[in-house]
């Protein structure tokens, strides 16, 4: 280990300061990753909707020259030569001494004068004392293999020459924080070959505005085609430290590049507090929490226009850095909105270092093998892992001394200083925070599951209790009692055979779409709209169309879900379009077939506001469901909202790979009425390439296959309902379950007739039930009949692909 190997030749003060306009990515050895990136961003974003603040950098040369002049290298070399980074106490003592050495070394008069002169040049009028942010920028920082996020210190709202000099000295010294020492050791960096530059930027007044982070991929799945933005009121430290649950937004990059301007989906965060800097007094500049009024908690911190402006800047940054690197380089970006001028500013951009480094062509899936009891707590899932261990409550840093490897670390929030303990945790659970808080960032980097924003985990989880933390069930993570068994399936995508018959996926949850998109499926053969309505909306479509028919209590309940000045109708359409749009975006440009809602009356009635609009039926399975609802006066206005959402997804979002399927269509005349209703709502077959399919799940669909095939682009066999109606077996009845068998000769004959009839009429034939997944012989029969596509759940996809390949090979023989 070594520091400087040459003798000092006197201070080179001209090289100590550079304006941000004078530096770029090629200057990383001179000004560090963060500052080099800021200079690059100033040129890239100048004049755009989101720009960067002005400022200057103290170079790495200033740091090295200061340590040369002070003769500091020998003592630093001796300190680190004997360091054992596994010894927490030794790391703390070493870090404290190293920081003191650097702080004293950077207090020379020449460096102070250079800082003061550069600060005066930032004045826009005589006597101005601009407020600035002082941020660290290490020469080994923001690299593709190591971000160094949160390892060094920054200082905000600094005003005046004396305070600026002090902040710069402390920033230089933060090269040797305990957490940075451990991080460098773990990543193989020489402590004394890394230097620190300091970026001094005009302060963006996010205290009165908002701030957050943006990633040019989905942080949990690594899905590359979205910009993921999170934000909250006040300073961004509240998000990083996990003190708030932020708002979250996704923007679809391919359709944005094609000229469409729509937010793909959004999630309202709690935003319980606003983090600001105390102004005036002895404690001026100290971070303090301010409660956020309910009216601000209940609305998003960014408008759609601002989300799209940030997305546009993020895409431009990713494209620029990718060109410079010669390969795709997803980015991690900090942003803020100034509460004074209202403008958006990009504060930092660095390569993303976790999700983008996962091995390509490999899909790893974890599943709990037994159905757990109700979750003890739940929150946002980080990663897709599962882990078990005893609970260790960390209420204060002193509690970390008792932490043992393999325990589940449970805390209100986490801090960068906790990294040594977090590295040894089986999992992490926090009361507060979103998917870009410190706990989430560290968990991703360490490859351990975390549940953040879990509410009252620190009070509901008993210390020492064995728990299982599961992030394998979509975007919601949960903590269950006990050690639960789970399986790990690792699929090498290259090992899957190629098939002529397309294998597609059945999906119900938009949350699962980004992960499922990694599978080499031909698309989505069945996206169940009723699941999107049930999980993302929870309100009966007719209640959104006619809130005046609801009770006062129900109207208030619906109103609590809306954004300010948003009507129930507009809210329903937005939420539904975001749900189906998320699935379509995940698989774009592969086709996604969305089935119109197929709740039964008893299921519809359970939705908020549903009871007044639904009849009571003795047998809902054969009652007012599917196609019979869409043109019926009881539901026509609700159907109009479904159509409006689909039009928005296709036209405003640009997701023209989204197509439609009509369920439970009993008669040919009913099919014509539904097609007319769809066309009246702007969804005419063939318009803009729109394809419309029909479910083939009633014997009459098979008997009259020639007539149905003339009206639709494709038929999709629903094997569950078709088996039920061919055999006369209620598929919900446990008493006659033994008679429910898709392999019955009568059912198999119906399947064959449906496929051959569709093909006879030039209409595509598919199946979206699980029969092919459950029975390879059904798959073989469908392939022999010439079926075009088979659609199954993601978990069944690999085995069905292999079954199809075997069936196709048998045909050749």
What report would you give on this structure?
- The protein is α/β, with parallel strands linked by helices.
- It has 30 helices and 31 strands.
- An 8-stranded parallel beta barrel has the order 24-25-26-27-28-29-30-31, surrounded by 5 helices.
- Helix 12 links the parallel strand 18 (408-411) and strand 19.
- The longest helix is centred in the middle third of the chain and has 22 residues, at 304-325.
- The chain is elongated and about 95 Å long.
- Residues 1-10 and 141-148 have low confidence and may be disordered.
Q: Please give the order of strands in the largest beta sheet.
A: 24-25-26-27-28-29-30-31
SS-based class: alpha/beta
Residue ranges: pLDDT <50 for 5 or more in a row? 1-10, 141-148
Helix content: 25-40%
* Annotation field: number of helices: 30
| Mean pLDDT over all positions | 90
By DSSP, the count of extended strands is 31
CA radius of gyration: 30 Å
Largest sheet: 8 strands, parallel, barrel
Distance between the amino and carboxyl termini: 67 Å
Question: Which shape, going by the Cα principal axes?
Answer: elongated
State which percent range the strand residues make up.
15-25%
